[in-house]
Design a protein that fits this description.
By secondary structure, the protein is an alpha/beta fold. It contains 6 helices and 7 strands. A hairpin with a 2-residue loop joins strand 3 and strand 4. It is elongated. It starts with a strand and ends in a 7-residue tail after the last helix.
Length: about 200
């Protein structure tokens, strides 16, 4: 099958979501500095990181295919929760989320070359509100021991074992997983990339 785009991510979740909507792609992950800038608000942060991933991938790979990148961040009380550095960090994040609402910002970036070599850049944003039930300390410890919190924004995977912590969700489930499919399909359609809906 002819590849329709390059996915600038090694995330198994993003690959599964693209598979779900019938998009054919090749994977080319890139490594960039994802440290938030001082006073950077969550929306600006996820837009910037997704855009940088797509730009670095396009520059490095030099492919004629469109490049798709995304960034997802968990935000509570205006604070961006990244990926946990260790057990203590993960415990602190989950304690903060326990019993509270938080927001999940998921930005999508699509870069493509026009016939005249001009690069076009499209972006979209999904914001989803998630409410966790109160999580007991022994549950946080047990969850940490599964290994699932590692490498996950906010130290949890909504599509995994952490689904039992979710009391309510308003917005895009796929956005919380890591790639908001409605917004992604809208961007891809601008490039004539058809998805199975």
């Amino acid at each position: 099958m002819t590849k329709q785009l390059v996915l600038a991510s090694a995330s198994p979740r993003r690959k599964e979501l693209l598979d779900q909507i019938g998009v054919s792609y090749t994977v080319y992950p890139v490594d960039i500095d994802e440290t938030p800038k001082q006073s950077e608000i969550p929306q600006d942060y996820v837009f910037r990181v997704a855009a940088e991933k797509a730009a670095v991938c396009m520059l490095t790979l030099n492919s004629p295919l469109p490049v798709l990148a995304a960034d997802t961040s968990v935000v509570i009380d205006g604070c961006i929760l990244g990926k946990p550095e260790n057990k203590e960090h993960a415990h602190a994040m989950l304690n903060k989320l326990s019993g509270n609402w938080h927001s999940v910002y998921s930005a999508v970036s699509l870069r493509c070359c026009a016939i005249n070599e001009e690069i076009k850049h499209f972006q979209a944003l999904s914001i989803t509100e998630v409410k966790f039930r109160t999580i007991q300390p022994h549950e946080i410890q047990a969850y940490w021991e599964t290994g699932e919190p590692l490498g996950k924004a906010g130290a949890y995977a909504i599509q995994g074992l952490a689904s039992v912590f979710v009391e309510s969700i308003n917005g895009s489930f796929s956005g919380v997983v890591g790639l908001p499919l409605f917004e992604t399909a809208e961007l891809l359609s601008k490039q004539g990339i058809k998805v199975i809906t």
